[in-house]
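Work package 3, deliverable 3.1, input record:
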Amino acid sequence: MVEHRRFGNLLPHLVLLTGVAIVAFPVYLAIIASTHDNTVIANGQMPLYPGTHGLETYWNTIVSGTGKTTREPVGGMMLNSLIMALGIAAGKIAISIISAYAIVFFSFPFRMTAFWTIFITLMLPVEVRIFPTYKITSDLHLLDSYSGLILPLIASATATLLFRQFFMTVPKELVEASKMDGAGPIRFFFDTLLPLSVTNIAALFVILFIYGWNQYLWPLLITTRDNMQTIVIGIKKIIDVHDALTEWSVAMATAVLAMLPPVAVVVLMQRLFVKGLIETEK
Amino acid sequence: MENRAIFSGKTLAYLLVLPQLAVSLIFFYWPAVQAVWQSFLIQDAFGLSTEFVWFENYVALLKEPGYYHAIGVTFMFSALVVFFSMAIGLLLAVMANQNIRGVQIYRTFLIIPYAVAPAVASVLFIFMFQPGLGMIARALQRSGVDWNPVLNGNHAMILIIIVGVWNQISYNFLFFLAGLQSIPKSVIEAAAIDGARPVRRFWTIVFPLLSPTTFFLIVVNITYAFFNTLGIIDTATGGGPNGETSTLVYKVFLDGKGGSDLGGSAAQSVILMIIVVLLTAFQFRYVEKKVHY
């Protein structure tokens, strides 16, 4: 510390505790609400400590569905979200790492054209080409399918740029040595480059898993069957701001379940997450 | 860009870039071209015939008062979300950068909002702000505020701004913290020796040195507020009441969903594309020096 403080570090702790309270309170409240009875919540008399209906609520939410509505149990939605998140993360990494490999280590006609073609996709987020993308996905018969949820989102300029940048730091000597040993491009990729990229891949995976799990617009558009819904869009059908009959305990349990996997990933893999976030810068 | 050109198998190289290019062309370029093409067409009410009308859709759009309203909503929403989420993120980062105990624990909590989907964050806040049962809504009502985001446009706007700010705090906190940690201690010590107090040191030395991070975050946060908040708006307000919370992106979604005005929706998409191109160009030109040729 630059100078001695009379009051120790009281101020930073106070500010940070306030920050943590602001960040954590809505999450805490959702957890508490998911353990209380609907009538207690609807009366606005919910206490700030856990209730006794937790097990029942989560069982109803995940497995059996509730009597009042005909909606799908949330367990199936979570499975859909998981498949989509893993598919997007794995797909983006796979196609980005091989295209970056080609662009950095190979010489071929239209190499720069390929690079720019990938780079410019950065400027075409799904939100600005919503309906034509829907149209082509529908023409390819991909509506209500996992391929339809995953494929249109897996092109990644950011991941390609990241791998390209990393590959350019790989010393030329390493490649020469590998070639000397008689390794071709495929062996070099699997024996040398891939092991070197493990940390980058893991960091990127954390970021992309969250990206995939939290998708909203795309699954909302292309899933019409209830059993293809993801949890992030399923939750909207449970709450209805105009309807006094919303089952709040179920809605909050669903919110908790929707937050759980990405929050767990971020908290448990904090180092990789921060590395991935700062390095992809997007 | 340096050409290392170490392997020469052309066929293999093409096979390696093929999947990425195929996905980009089918799901990015083709739809983008379609959007531009559709923005020049007008379809009759039954979808039987289309007519090429040059810029008529754009002209119609620019004559529509609702479009200017959406521009205003987008501007206000984005400005407030960007300002507050960055200010709070910066404040927390400055505090976390003070060599105090337990920073790791604070950080663990502060990164949580990043992992929460915008639509889910929205649900958490709807629960607190729901008139009649939400904890904060009831507190407001007790203190005489007739809180009702379903009917009151300002209340609806405040609600989605709060959700957006909450959702973005983590990102800004982490980047400001990384930025602060990269400022050499010696610079700050030198200022301290010159007698500058902490607050003065912050505004005259630390904040200017942070400006690359700040500019970068401004662009990223604008992009967030424009595009990634659709889930928040759709869940919390559905653009209402009376379009009071309908941003440009949400308007594209709403207008296209009915399918009645594909040309108009496409024209809006094209305008958004131009905005993204400008933001991205700005980011790479002034903020990042990521791509070297």
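Chain B has one domain: 64-287.
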